[in-house]
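This part of the workshop introduces the protein records we will be handling. To make this concrete, we reproduce a full record directly below.
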Amino acid sequence: MDYSLNEQQKMMRSLARQIAEEKILPVRAEYDEKEIFPWDVVKALSEAGLFGVFIPEEYGGLGGGNFDLCLVVEELSRVCGGIALAYAATALGATPIIEAGSDELKKRYLPRIADGTIAAFGLTEAEAGSDAAATKASAVKADDGSYIVNGTKRFISNGGDAEIYSIIAMTDKTKGPRGATALVVDKDTPGFTFGKKEKKMGIRANSTRELVYDDCKIPSENLIGKEGYGFIIAMKTLDKSRAPVGSQAVGIAQGAFEASVAHARERKQFDKPLASLQAISHMLADMGTQIEAARALVYAAARHIDTGAKHITEEGSMAKLFASEVAMRVTTDAVQIHGGIGYMRDFPIEKMMRDAKITQIYEGTSQILKNDIAPQILKRRGLRQ
């Protein structure tokens, strides 16, 4: 379908596709198997200027929006969702700074991110997953105005490899969610260390680690927004990040679909190509239709977010929910179409299925997203506005 991309967007997509084909494709199996963080791909993306896509122009970026980010994430994920996450999770870590940081904070961190410095977002904890308001990590204000952070963050993408961390900690636990505050923490800050690297089902080319804060002193100028606004900043960050997760899901599904079409054309059974069998051709028809529907919804949601609309929770949540469910269905069908070889680790299909699963879980599980969507529907009684 023609989504009326402008010349800059076409260039971004073309560059991302080229890097995916030339840099990611040759190493995706090895990086998945050995759990290697893709520093060479990060370098290629940086040299191509793609880390600047989501950074405002005044801070060294290209000034692109949510839609532009989705285009790049989709192309990278089409070849490897795990490697693409180094890029996507950096955008996630940058979002709180972009949305709520002071001009001084933006000048200090955003140009570095635009140049390819890896970032991460620290929200999840052992007892604060879907219930983000249950955050226990604390940030106590010292006499000199700095914050002393203690606690842990769990399952953080880019954890340990990122240099810049946007985190949420409680400055006043008596206020519940209104007592949460957002801060930027540099990797080399004393008192900041990392737990073990998690062993995961999928996205194995991305590092997932625990962040550990032990009397970690953060200067007051690293405050994002105002004290007590951390939960609001976190929710706004997730609202803006869900369409890009949807684009990751679309990319993974597209890669699995393309491989399935090629296999169905080449593989012969009963003296004819698999594609000539109605059962297989109908599966391909369903896969293609679902992907196009998911892409259309993700793109529409991303463009809606870029309008600056105040209420974007429903649109972003719908895009991620639908696209992630499609990715899981499509990759499952792709394994089925490939038969025995689809189940083997020598081929990329089983990896795509493993990578697809996380899109139903992180940045809001499918079940939690329905909890976000339903009240919005009930509020407007299902009527078009």
User: Anything to note?
Assistant: The chain has a mean pLDDT of 96. The radius of gyration is 21 Å. The longest strand covers residues 147-157.
